[in-house]
Design goal:
Elements: H1 24-42, H2 53-64, H3 69-79, H4 85-98, E1 100-102, E2 106-117, H5 124-132, E3 135-140, H6 145-159, E4 176-189, E5 200-205, E6 211-229, E7 234-241, E8 247-254, H7 260-268, H8 278-283, E9 287-295, E10 297-304, H9 306-312, E11 333-346, E12 350-363, E13 376-382, E14 387-394
Parallel strand pairs: 2-3
Antiparallel strand pairs: 1-2, 2-4, 4-12, 5-6, 6-7, 6-9, 7-8, 10-11, 11-12, 13-14
This protein binds 2-acetamido-2-deoxy-beta-D-glucopyranose (2 copies).
One 2-acetamido-2-deoxy-beta-D-glucopyranose binds at residues 104-105, 189, 193, 349.
Length: 400
């Protein structure tokens, strides 16, 4: 059996209103974020990765409206926003619209909130932008981190129907002046559910073809879009949700022997103008009856997104020296944390997925700063002769 590595495009390939015409700019950001998050987490030995890129996109699109200079141009470029406030707001609004769907067999709810220091002068235009994209604004005292964590966790728990319960701890909120939250909840039945009596245990392999474990493999023969997409080097299968098939999950199985990293890199590469995007082509394929084997699975992931975001090219907003967010507040701020929790369960009947993205904003430190909070080398000098007397490396911290 060929290797199975799961790649889940959480955020729903077919969510756009005009199915078959994916929003390439937003998707380009999503694939870049997935690629970078995987690379970053793999370096810590974490292999199962799940992100909700649209939630991150939405949160940083709002911040774009309060940014300027280098910070603005990085966000504009990486998020694929039009260089025009009105057009940006319209794009943001259309994305927010996608995140509202409630039919008999599909529920999708996107909610966002801003928790802010009452003493912080927030610009009225920024509040208007927040309101425009239906972000709830709460005035809070962030110095009481116990209460703030409680408020944020309650908001997220409610917005995700209880799927994400303890997204933040009080100690994660030290020094924050503003916290932006974006929550996403998705619950849907497959258009063609699996019969649980056909689910059987099966081996699961890595890209070298070595068995690395067992899974509960679901099976059915049902009409699905299915194609070899050479451009990215994968077999792609689409399983739709609900009777109207407006949402779907795509499973991308890399060609035998091809590492998942290569597939992620292919997905993230810049689409060319001339050729239609592989997703556009794929979504217009006919459905065929396919013998489909997909494992039942559950994933719970927490990702620190600052590094992955930096790799995509959004850098200065995270830099206490260089962040330019004058349109957010009169106090200079920077984004000091961005964390996302994702819970996802795929079963015979469908999928339940929830995500919460949290971005914390702190006061910027103006002027040079030196913080020896990682491994460092030290030297002791005799200054007149410029001679080193002692030299060392401090790399094993202890509280002395
Ligand atoms: C979803 O599937 C489950 C299990 O088959 C079923 O009990 C439930 O009624 C379905 N929901 C809808 C809205 O069709
Ligand atoms: C923080 O808020 C909680 C709940 O409102 C309250 O009980 C507690 O006394 C507050 N702590 C401080 C230090 O103000």
């Amino acid at each position: 059996m060929r290797m199975w590595t799961l790649l889940i495009v959480v955020g729903l390939a077919c969510g756009a209103p005009n199915v078959g015409n994916p929003n390439n700019a937003v998707n380009h950001f999503s694939f870049g974020l997935l690629h970078n998050t995987y690379q970053f987490q793999e370096s810590f030995g974490t292999k199962n990765v799940a992100v909700a890129p649209l939630s991150v996109w939405s949160l940083f699109s709002l911040l774009t409206e309060g940014s300027s200079g280098q910070t603005f141009s990085e966000l504009l470029n990486v998020l694929g926003l039009p260089n025009d406030l009105r057009a940006t707001q319209n794009l943001h609004l259309s994305v927010k619209d996608i995140l509202k769907h409630n039919s008999r067999d599909v529920t999708l709810i996107g909610q966002s909130a801003m928790f802010s220091d009452c003493s912080l002068e927030i610009h009225p235009e920024f509040c208007r932008s927040a309101n425009l994209c239906s972000t709830d604004v709460y005035s809070v005292d962030p110095s009481n981190t116990t209460k703030l964590a409680g408020d944020i966790n309650y908001y997220i728990c409610t917005a995700t129907e209880g799927k994400i319960i303890n997204a933040v701890k009080p100690q994660n909120l030290d020094n924050l002046r503003m916290v932006l939250v974006d929550a996403l909840y998705f619950k849907a039945n497959w258009t063609h559910p699996f019969d649980p009596t056909h689910t059987k245990q099966a081996d699961f392999q890595n890209s070298q073809g070595r068995t690395i474990g067992r899974v509960n493999m679901m099976y059915h023969k049902a009409p699905h879009r299915h194609a070899d997409v050479e451009e990215i080097g994968a077999q792609v299968l689409e399983m739709t949700y609900g009777s109207d098939a407006r949402y779907s999950m795509l499973l991308l199985l890399p060609y035998e022997g091809m590492p998942i990293k290569q597939l992620l890199e292919n997905l993230a590469s810049k689409p060319t103008e001339r050729k239609p995007h592989w997703l556009t082509t794929f979504l217009s394929e006919e459905e065929h009856n396919v013998d489909t084997y997909v494992p039942r699975f559950f994933m719970s992931a927490q990702s620190d997104l600052i590094r992955p975001m930096q790799y995509t090219g959004i850098v200065s907003i995270f830099d206490p020296q260089r962040a330019e967010l004058p349109g957010v507040s009169t106090s200079p701020l920077f984004v000091s944390s961005t964390v996302q929790n994702v819970e996802l369960e795929v079963t015979e009947e469908g999928t339940v997925a929830a995500a919460a993205t949290i971005a914390g904003l702190e006061d910027r430190i103006l002027g040079p700063r030196f913080e020896a909070n990682r491994e460092f080398v030290f030297l002791i000098l005799e200054r007149s002769a410029g001679i080193v007397l002692f030299a060392g490396v401090y790399s094993e911290p202890s509280v002395v």
